[in-house]
Amino acid sequence: MTKKKLKDIQGSPDTRRIDIDKVGVKGITYPIVVLDKKNKTQHTIASINMYVDLPHHFKGTHMSRFVEILNEHRGEITVRNFPGILEEMKRRFSAGTAHLEVEFPYFIEKAAPVSKSKGLMEYRCRYLGTLSDRQDFVLDVSVPVLTVCPCSKEISERGAHNQRGLVTVSMRFDGFVWIEDIIKTVEKSASSPVYSLLKRVDEKYITEKSFDKPMFVEDVVREVAVNLGREKKIKWFRVEAENSESIHNHSAYAFVERGRG
Question: Where do the domains of the chain lie, and which CATH numbers do they carry?
Protein backbone atom coordinates (compact mmCIF):
# COMPACT_ATOMS: atom_id res chain seq x y z
CA MET A 1 0.00 0.00 0.00
CA THR A 2 1.42 3.39 -1.02
CA LYS A 3 1.57 5.94 1.77
CA LYS A 4 -0.12 9.23 1.00
CA LYS A 5 2.25 12.18 1.24
CA LEU A 6 1.12 14.63 3.91
CA LYS A 7 0.67 18.15 2.68
CA ASP A 8 2.90 20.86 4.17
CA ILE A 9 0.33 23.54 5.01
CA GLN A 10 2.85 25.74 6.83
CA GLY A 11 5.02 25.93 3.74
CA SER A 12 2.16 26.93 1.46
CA PRO A 13 2.11 30.50 0.10
CA ASP A 14 0.32 33.45 1.69
CA THR A 15 -0.92 36.36 -0.44
CA ARG A 16 -1.36 39.07 2.21
CA ARG A 17 2.29 40.17 1.92
CA ILE A 18 2.78 40.78 5.65
CA ASP A 19 6.07 39.72 7.24
CA ILE A 20 5.79 38.46 10.82
CA ASP A 21 8.43 39.75 13.23
CA LYS A 22 8.19 36.92 15.75
CA VAL A 23 6.52 33.54 15.52
CA GLY A 24 7.24 30.52 17.66
CA VAL A 25 6.53 28.79 20.94
CA LYS A 26 6.10 30.27 24.39
CA GLY A 27 6.16 28.93 27.93
CA ILE A 28 8.01 25.65 27.42
CA THR A 29 8.95 24.24 30.82
CA TYR A 30 12.32 22.59 30.44
CA PRO A 31 15.26 21.38 32.58
CA ILE A 32 18.49 23.29 31.97
CA VAL A 33 22.00 23.54 33.39
CA VAL A 34 23.44 26.93 34.37
CA LEU A 35 26.96 27.79 35.44
CA ASP A 36 27.47 28.02 39.21
CA LYS A 37 30.48 29.86 40.65
CA LYS A 38 30.74 27.62 43.72
CA ASN A 39 29.54 24.26 42.39
CA LYS A 40 30.50 24.64 38.68
CA THR A 41 26.97 23.84 37.45
CA GLN A 42 23.41 24.00 38.78
CA HIS A 43 20.39 22.11 37.50
CA THR A 44 17.17 24.11 37.39
CA ILE A 45 13.84 24.36 35.55
CA ALA A 46 13.32 27.11 32.99
CA SER A 47 10.41 28.68 31.14
CA ILE A 48 11.54 29.09 27.54
CA ASN A 49 10.28 31.20 24.63
CA MET A 50 11.63 30.66 21.10
CA TYR A 51 10.82 32.81 18.07
CA VAL A 52 11.97 33.44 14.51
CA ASP A 53 10.82 35.89 11.87
CA LEU A 54 8.58 34.66 9.05
CA PRO A 55 8.68 36.09 5.49
CA HIS A 56 5.38 37.23 4.04
CA HIS A 57 5.26 34.49 1.39
CA PHE A 58 5.00 31.63 3.94
CA LYS A 59 1.71 30.80 5.63
CA GLY A 60 3.24 29.42 8.81
CA THR A 61 6.31 28.03 10.56
CA HIS A 62 7.08 24.49 11.71
CA MET A 63 6.54 24.69 15.47
CA SER A 64 7.86 21.19 16.21
CA ARG A 65 11.35 22.24 15.12
CA PHE A 66 11.68 24.53 18.14
CA VAL A 67 11.23 21.61 20.53
CA GLU A 68 13.55 19.45 18.42
CA ILE A 69 16.30 22.05 18.80
CA LEU A 70 15.75 22.16 22.58
CA ASN A 71 15.99 18.38 22.77
CA GLU A 72 19.26 18.44 20.83
CA HIS A 73 20.74 20.83 23.41
CA ARG A 74 19.32 19.08 26.46
CA GLY A 75 21.45 19.81 29.51
CA GLU A 76 23.61 22.29 27.61
CA ILE A 77 21.65 25.55 27.66
CA THR A 78 24.19 27.94 29.18
CA VAL A 79 25.46 31.46 28.50
CA ARG A 80 28.37 30.00 26.57
CA ASN A 81 26.37 28.00 24.02
CA PHE A 82 23.49 30.47 23.62
CA PRO A 83 24.89 31.80 20.30
CA GLY A 84 25.10 28.26 18.91
CA ILE A 85 21.43 27.58 19.69
CA LEU A 86 20.40 30.82 17.99
CA GLU A 87 22.51 29.92 14.95
CA GLU A 88 20.78 26.54 14.80
CA MET A 89 17.36 28.21 14.96
CA LYS A 90 18.23 30.54 12.10
CA ARG A 91 19.55 27.66 10.01
CA ARG A 92 16.68 25.24 10.62
CA PHE A 93 14.03 27.85 9.89
CA SER A 94 15.95 29.70 7.15
CA ALA A 95 15.19 32.78 9.24
CA GLY A 96 16.72 36.23 9.21
CA THR A 97 16.32 36.66 12.98
CA ALA A 98 16.10 34.26 15.92
CA HIS A 99 15.09 35.03 19.52
CA LEU A 100 15.58 32.89 22.63
CA GLU A 101 14.32 33.79 26.11
CA VAL A 102 15.10 31.60 29.11
CA GLU A 103 13.76 32.44 32.59
CA PHE A 104 14.74 30.34 35.57
CA PRO A 105 15.13 30.30 39.37
CA TYR A 106 18.74 30.34 40.54
CA PHE A 107 19.57 29.17 44.07
CA ILE A 108 22.40 30.22 46.36
CA GLU A 109 23.08 28.79 49.81
CA LYS A 110 23.34 31.75 52.19
CA ALA A 111 24.48 31.75 55.79
CA ALA A 112 22.74 34.02 58.31
CA PRO A 113 25.02 36.87 59.47
CA VAL A 114 25.41 35.82 63.14
CA SER A 115 24.15 32.27 63.71
CA LYS A 116 25.50 31.12 60.33
CA SER A 117 22.36 29.03 59.82
CA LYS A 118 22.16 28.10 56.15
CA GLY A 119 19.23 28.25 53.77
CA LEU A 120 18.64 28.42 50.03
CA MET A 121 17.80 31.81 48.52
CA GLU A 122 15.99 31.97 45.17
CA TYR A 123 16.81 34.61 42.57
CA ARG A 124 14.93 35.00 39.28
CA CYS A 125 17.17 35.20 36.23
CA ARG A 126 16.66 35.55 32.48
CA TYR A 127 18.80 35.06 29.40
CA LEU A 128 17.56 37.11 26.43
CA GLY A 129 19.27 36.41 23.12
CA THR A 130 18.73 37.67 19.58
CA LEU A 131 20.67 36.84 16.42
CA SER A 132 20.18 38.57 13.07
CA ASP A 133 23.08 40.13 11.20
CA ARG A 134 24.54 40.75 14.66
CA GLN A 135 24.28 39.08 18.04
CA ASP A 136 22.70 40.52 21.19
CA PHE A 137 22.61 38.94 24.66
CA VAL A 138 21.14 40.41 27.84
CA LEU A 139 21.32 38.92 31.34
CA ASP A 140 18.55 39.84 33.82
CA VAL A 141 18.91 39.17 37.55
CA SER A 142 16.23 40.07 40.15
CA VAL A 143 17.42 40.45 43.74
CA PRO A 144 15.23 40.99 46.83
CA VAL A 145 16.65 43.47 49.34
CA LEU A 146 15.75 45.31 52.55
CA THR A 147 15.61 49.11 52.75
CA VAL A 148 15.07 51.45 55.70
CA CYS A 149 13.51 54.85 54.94
CA PRO A 150 15.95 57.74 55.68
CA CYS A 151 13.10 60.24 56.06
CA SER A 152 11.25 58.05 58.56
CA LYS A 153 14.44 57.58 60.56
CA GLU A 154 15.15 61.32 60.61
CA ILE A 155 11.71 62.48 61.74
CA SER A 156 10.70 59.65 64.09
CA GLU A 157 11.49 59.53 67.77
CA ARG A 158 11.34 55.74 67.81
CA GLY A 159 12.52 53.57 64.92
CA ALA A 160 11.89 53.89 61.19
CA HIS A 161 9.74 52.05 58.69
CA ASN A 162 11.39 49.52 56.41
CA GLN A 163 10.29 47.41 53.48
CA ARG A 164 11.38 44.67 51.16
CA GLY A 165 12.40 45.82 47.71
CA LEU A 166 13.15 44.11 44.44
CA VAL A 167 16.09 45.23 42.32
CA THR A 168 16.31 43.98 38.73
CA VAL A 169 19.56 44.43 36.85
CA SER A 170 19.81 43.92 33.09
CA MET A 171 23.19 44.02 31.37
CA ARG A 172 25.21 43.47 28.24
CA PHE A 173 28.82 42.50 28.79
CA ASP A 174 32.03 41.36 27.13
CA GLY A 175 33.47 38.03 28.18
CA PHE A 176 31.71 36.42 31.13
CA VAL A 177 30.15 37.52 34.43
CA TRP A 178 28.93 35.39 37.33
CA ILE A 179 25.33 35.65 38.50
CA GLU A 180 26.62 35.48 42.10
CA ASP A 181 28.78 38.57 41.59
CA ILE A 182 25.82 40.58 40.29
CA ILE A 183 23.73 39.50 43.28
CA LYS A 184 26.46 40.59 45.71
CA THR A 185 26.75 43.95 43.97
CA VAL A 186 23.02 44.58 44.41
CA GLU A 187 22.83 43.35 48.00
CA LYS A 188 25.65 45.57 49.20
CA SER A 189 23.89 48.54 47.56
CA ALA A 190 20.83 48.25 49.83
CA SER A 191 20.27 48.62 53.56
CA SER A 192 20.60 44.86 53.95
CA PRO A 193 20.35 41.59 52.05
CA VAL A 194 17.41 39.33 52.82
CA TYR A 195 17.73 35.70 53.90
CA SER A 196 15.63 32.55 53.84
CA LEU A 197 16.59 31.43 57.35
CA LEU A 198 17.26 33.65 60.39
CA LYS A 199 17.52 33.12 64.14
CA ARG A 200 16.72 35.79 66.74
CA VAL A 201 20.33 36.91 66.93
CA ASP A 202 20.27 37.39 63.15
CA GLU A 203 17.05 39.39 63.24
CA LYS A 204 18.55 41.68 65.89
CA TYR A 205 21.71 42.15 63.84
CA ILE A 206 19.89 42.88 60.54
CA THR A 207 17.41 45.25 62.17
CA GLU A 208 20.16 47.31 63.79
CA LYS A 209 22.58 47.12 60.87
CA SER A 210 20.01 48.21 58.30
CA PHE A 211 18.89 51.06 60.62
CA ASP A 212 22.46 52.37 60.38
CA LYS A 213 22.27 52.33 56.57
CA PRO A 214 18.96 53.90 55.51
CA MET A 215 18.34 53.98 51.74
CA PHE A 216 15.71 55.57 49.54
CA VAL A 217 14.84 53.66 46.38
CA GLU A 218 16.76 56.43 44.59
CA ASP A 219 19.83 55.66 46.71
CA VAL A 220 19.63 51.99 45.78
CA VAL A 221 19.61 52.46 41.99
CA ARG A 222 22.38 55.06 42.20
CA GLU A 223 24.54 52.83 44.37
CA VAL A 224 24.02 49.82 42.09
CA ALA A 225 24.85 52.02 39.08
CA VAL A 226 28.08 53.23 40.70
CA ASN A 227 29.16 49.68 41.51
CA LEU A 228 28.27 48.29 38.06
CA GLY A 229 30.03 51.23 36.43
CA ARG A 230 33.31 50.03 37.94
CA GLU A 231 33.06 46.69 36.15
CA LYS A 232 34.92 47.05 32.84
CA LYS A 233 33.29 43.92 31.36
CA ILE A 234 29.82 45.50 31.55
CA LYS A 235 29.16 47.67 28.49
CA TRP A 236 25.49 48.52 29.18
CA PHE A 237 23.18 48.14 32.17
CA ARG A 238 19.70 48.97 33.36
CA VAL A 239 18.72 49.04 37.04
CA GLU A 240 15.14 49.03 38.33
CA ALA A 241 14.25 49.14 42.00
CA GLU A 242 10.76 48.80 43.46
CA ASN A 243 9.99 49.03 47.17
CA SER A 244 6.77 47.52 48.50
CA GLU A 245 6.13 50.38 50.89
CA SER A 246 5.08 49.28 54.38
CA ILE A 247 3.14 52.48 55.27
CA HIS A 248 1.74 53.36 51.84
CA ASN A 249 -0.73 51.65 49.54
CA HIS A 250 1.68 51.94 46.63
CA SER A 251 5.24 51.07 45.67
CA ALA A 252 8.23 53.40 45.30
CA TYR A 253 10.16 53.02 42.03
CA ALA A 254 13.42 54.24 40.46
CA PHE A 255 15.20 53.46 37.19
CA VAL A 256 18.69 54.06 35.77
CA GLU A 257 20.09 53.06 32.35
CA ARG A 258 23.69 53.58 31.27
CA GLY A 259 26.02 52.46 28.48
CA ARG A 260 29.72 52.89 27.76
CA GLY A 261 30.72 55.14 24.87
Answer: 20-259 (3.10.270.10)
pLDDT score for 242: 97
Closest Cα to residue 126, out of 77, 62, 195? 77
> What is the residue-averaged pLDDT of the chain?
92
Report the C-alpha gap between 234 and 169 in whole angstroms.
12
Which residues lie below 8 Å from residue 25, measured CB to CB, with a gap of 6+? 49, 50, 63, 66, 67
CA dist 45 and 33 (Å) reads 8
- What's the predicted TM-score (pTM) here? 0.90
Which tens digits make up the pLDDT trace of 103-130?
999 999 999 999 999 999 999 999 999 9
Q: Which 3 state secondary structure label does DSSP give 202?
A: helix
Spell out where 132-216 has E strands.
135-148, 162-173, 192-193
Residue 9, Cβ neighbours under 10 Å: how many?
8
What CA–CA distance (Å, rounded) separates 144 from 115?
21
